[in-house]
Amino acid sequence: MYAVIKTGGKQYRVEPGMKLRVEKLKAEEGSTIEFEPLMIRKDDGTVEFYKGKVVAEVLSHRKGKKVTVFKYKPKKNYKRWKGHRQPYTEVLIKDIKEV
Description:
Blueprint lengths: L1 E6 L2 E5 L4 E5 L8 E4 L1 E5 L5 E3 L3 E11 L3 E7 L4 E7 L2 E11 L2
Antiparallel strand pairs: 1-2, 1-5, 3-10, 4-7, 5-6, 7-10, 8-9
Protein backbone atom coordinates (compact mmCIF):
# COMPACT_ATOMS: atom_id res chain seq x y z
CA MET A 1 0.00 0.00 0.00
CA TYR A 2 1.22 3.49 -0.76
CA ALA A 3 -0.12 7.05 -0.74
CA VAL A 4 0.65 10.34 -2.46
CA ILE A 5 0.85 13.35 -0.14
CA LYS A 6 1.38 17.04 -0.81
CA THR A 7 3.51 19.27 1.43
CA GLY A 8 5.70 22.28 0.76
CA GLY A 9 4.31 22.63 -2.78
CA LYS A 10 5.61 19.19 -3.78
CA GLN A 11 4.04 15.74 -4.03
CA TYR A 12 5.63 12.62 -2.54
CA ARG A 13 4.85 8.91 -2.93
CA VAL A 14 5.13 7.39 0.56
CA GLU A 15 4.92 3.94 2.12
CA PRO A 16 4.93 2.90 5.82
CA GLY A 17 8.46 2.79 7.27
CA MET A 18 9.85 5.27 4.74
CA LYS A 19 12.09 8.22 5.73
CA LEU A 20 11.43 11.42 3.84
CA ARG A 21 12.93 14.92 3.63
CA VAL A 22 10.31 17.65 3.17
CA GLU A 23 10.32 21.45 3.34
CA LYS A 24 10.65 22.70 6.92
CA LEU A 25 7.52 22.10 9.01
CA LYS A 26 6.45 23.86 12.20
CA ALA A 27 6.50 20.80 14.44
CA GLU A 28 8.72 19.72 17.31
CA GLU A 29 11.15 16.83 17.02
CA GLY A 30 9.55 13.59 18.21
CA SER A 31 6.01 14.85 17.62
CA THR A 32 3.44 13.14 15.40
CA ILE A 33 1.93 14.91 12.40
CA GLU A 34 -0.76 13.94 9.90
CA PHE A 35 -0.87 14.54 6.17
CA GLU A 36 -4.03 14.38 4.08
CA PRO A 37 -3.30 12.09 1.13
CA LEU A 38 -4.24 13.00 -2.42
CA MET A 39 -4.44 9.32 -3.32
CA ILE A 40 -4.19 5.92 -1.58
CA ARG A 41 -3.48 2.74 -3.55
CA LYS A 42 -4.33 -0.42 -1.62
CA ASP A 43 -2.68 -3.82 -1.94
CA ASP A 44 -5.64 -5.21 -3.91
CA GLY A 45 -5.17 -2.55 -6.59
CA THR A 46 -8.07 -0.25 -5.74
CA VAL A 47 -7.47 3.49 -5.57
CA GLU A 48 -9.14 6.04 -3.28
CA PHE A 49 -8.84 9.82 -3.63
CA TYR A 50 -8.82 12.34 -0.74
CA LYS A 51 -9.79 9.72 1.89
CA GLY A 52 -7.80 8.67 4.93
CA LYS A 53 -4.69 10.09 6.55
CA VAL A 54 -0.96 9.50 6.66
CA VAL A 55 0.63 9.50 10.15
CA ALA A 56 4.29 10.53 10.40
CA GLU A 57 6.83 11.24 13.16
CA VAL A 58 9.21 14.21 12.99
CA LEU A 59 12.78 12.92 13.33
CA SER A 60 14.86 16.10 12.94
CA HIS A 61 15.19 19.61 11.54
CA ARG A 62 18.37 20.25 9.56
CA LYS A 63 19.89 22.24 6.71
CA GLY A 64 20.72 20.85 3.28
CA LYS A 65 23.98 21.05 1.39
CA LYS A 66 25.34 24.47 0.53
CA VAL A 67 24.42 25.88 -2.87
CA THR A 68 26.93 28.42 -4.21
CA VAL A 69 25.73 31.29 -6.39
CA PHE A 70 28.48 33.08 -8.37
CA LYS A 71 27.87 36.18 -10.49
CA TYR A 72 30.54 37.38 -12.89
CA LYS A 73 30.80 40.05 -15.56
CA PRO A 74 33.87 39.89 -17.78
CA LYS A 75 36.20 42.90 -18.08
CA LYS A 76 34.29 44.88 -15.41
CA ASN A 77 35.94 43.56 -12.20
CA TYR A 78 32.53 42.35 -10.95
CA LYS A 79 32.39 39.11 -8.94
CA ARG A 80 29.84 38.14 -6.27
CA TRP A 81 29.72 34.93 -4.22
CA LYS A 82 26.68 33.92 -2.24
CA GLY A 83 25.78 30.69 -0.45
CA HIS A 84 22.46 29.22 0.71
CA ARG A 85 21.47 26.20 2.81
CA GLN A 86 17.81 25.20 2.55
CA PRO A 87 16.23 24.01 5.83
CA TYR A 88 14.31 20.73 5.78
CA THR A 89 12.46 18.38 8.11
CA GLU A 90 13.11 14.64 8.12
CA VAL A 91 9.99 12.56 8.83
CA LEU A 92 9.32 8.85 9.27
CA ILE A 93 6.05 7.57 7.78
CA LYS A 94 4.43 5.45 10.49
CA ASP A 95 1.09 4.40 9.03
CA ILE A 96 -1.43 4.98 6.25
CA LYS A 97 -4.97 4.89 7.64
CA GLU A 98 -7.98 4.34 5.43
CA VAL A 99 -11.43 5.78 6.11
